[in-house]
Amino acid sequence: MPHRSRLAVPSALVPVLALALGCGAPGETTPGESASPDTTASASSPSAGAGDRDSTRDRSADSAGHNRADIDFARDLTPHHEQAVVAAELAQERASDPEVQDLARRIAAAQEPETNQLQAMLRMWGEDVTPGGGSGEHEHSHLMTEETFQQLHDTTGTEFDTLWLRTMIEHHRGAVEIAEAQLDDGSDTLATMYAEKIVDRQTRQITEMRELLGE
Predict the structure, then answer these.
(1) Which domain holds residue 83?
(2) Looking at the predicted structure, is the pLDDT value of residue 99 above 60?
C-alpha cells in the first residue's frame, strides 16, 4: 500500500472518532461465536511463528526493556486503530450485508480497547502518547486517505459493502505490517504479545473479508 498523508477525518465523523478511545478489552470472536471479555491477556500462548522470530531477535535487547521499535509500534497503531473504529462504525450503519455488519462490529469491539492498551503501555514506559510521535519511519503510511474515507461515506448498499471490504483489507495489511516490524525488531514482552494478537486476528479477518468478496 503506497505511503499516504495522515487521514483528515470528514467533519461529520469527528465526533465518532472522539469516542474511539473507550475502556475495556473484549476478546475477538469468529463468526457465530459470542464475544467474551479478555481483560487479562496472557503471554503464555504465543502465536505460531513467534519462535522463528525469537531466534533472529537480538537477545541482549530483552533485558533492556522496550526499544524504539516498540515505541513506534504503539504510536503508529494508535491512529490506525482509531481510523478502523470509525470505518467499522460507518459499516454498521451503511452495510447491506449482515455479515459485513457483524465483521465491522467485531473489528470495533477489538480495536477500540486495544487503542487504550497501546496508550497505557506508552505511559507505563514514560513515553509521549502522541500518535506518530516515534521515529517517523512508518508514520501515517498505512492510513486511509481522506478521499477514500469520503468515498465510503458517500456510498450505500452493495457498492458500499464492496468498497469497505477492499479498503479494510488494505488497512488490515497495514496493521499487520506495523505489528510484524515490532516482532522483528522490538524487545518488550507486552508489546510482542499485542503484536502477535494483532497479526493473528487481522490476518484471519483479511481471509474472512476476501471470502465475503468471493475471492
Answers:
(1) 64-212
(2) yes
